[in-house]
Amino acid sequence: MRLRKASALAASVLALSLAATACGSSDDEGGDGGSDGAGSGGGDSITIGIKFDQPGLGLQTPDGDYAGFDVDVATYIAGELGYEPDQIEWVESPSAERENLLSRGDVDFIAATYSITPEREEQVSFAGPYLLAHQDLLMRVGETVSSPDEINELTLCSVAGSTSAQNVQNDFAPDAQLLEMGTYSECLTGLENGTVDALTTDDSILAGYASQEANQGKFELAGLELSNENYGVGIPKDDTELQQQINDALTSMVESGAWDQAVEDNFGPAGYEAEAAPAIGEIV
Ligand code: GLU
After folding, report:
1. In the chain, where are the structural domains located?
2. Which residues form the signal peptide (predicted)?
3. Is the C-beta atom of 95 inside 6 A of ligand 1?
4. CATH classification of 133-221, choosing from 3.40.190.10, 3.40.980.10, 3.40.50.960, 3.40.47.10?
5. 163 lines ligand 1 (CB under 6 A)
6. What is the pTM for the complete model shown?
7. Whose CA is nearest to atom 9 of ligand 1?
8. How confident is the model over 70-86, as pLDDT tens digits?
9. What fold, for 47-132+230-270?
10. Beta pairing class for 53-54 and 58-60
11. Measuring CA to CA, which residue among 243, 255, 202, 246 is closest to residue 225?
12. Whether the CB of 243 sits within 6 Å of ligand 1
């Protein structure tokens, strides 16, 4: 018995030393495609996930630039990590792809209307929160509902992999017809041509669509606060060092007034009244 134990121990020591040799000889350079890791600063570039089709939050403009509150928050964070705006590589991050992009190492972090949830925290980690939004409905002018009870009667459109779609099914309208698209702008087309009665997601996003020049006078928000959406900065799971650096950057963004400025610049034109800056680590 004793002998067997001793030899088992010897075998595991041998296995460990083999594993150590294997690690040491691989001379791994990281192999993450050129980005030096978000926390290191001063590298060639930083890769950040945002939305490309959400005016006021993350939008690729016709001249190939990027604009919105998430873009400003991400740019501020990158600056604090040691990267100039021209060192940022923006990557489109559809709702259903965000966990995959982070887990695969395709992006260093994500600022893309990304709500912090316990389910997502099984796969990724979050810094923040940096904004509190609420789920609402966008409907054709004159056709809005005024109470959550009426939502079950509607044909809704939302996006796969979003909390918005999940909340409809699990929470406030399990009987409603729900169409799940890849992006919210696809839902907007459905709302315009009458295929759906409402587009449902965060009020911050809906306000941006409603205020676009091409949509003036066409759509309005129902004004129902159907959920709390705590926007966090998505990071690779358990990267506590990066989490601390981003939390420090967010604190400094709020204290310096840059956060208020970004709210005014990006939500002002849509008339969206953002909630006060949330406290770091506090989910409501
Ligand atoms: N904030 C919600 C979410 O993270 C809805 C917006 C989105 O899909 O990006 O799912």
Report:
1. 47-132+230-270, 133-221
2. 1-22
3. yes
4. 3.40.190.10
5. yes
6. 0.86
7. 113
8. 999 999 999 999 999 99
9. D-Maltodextrin-Binding Protein; domain 2 (3.40.190)
10. antiparallel
11. 202
12. no
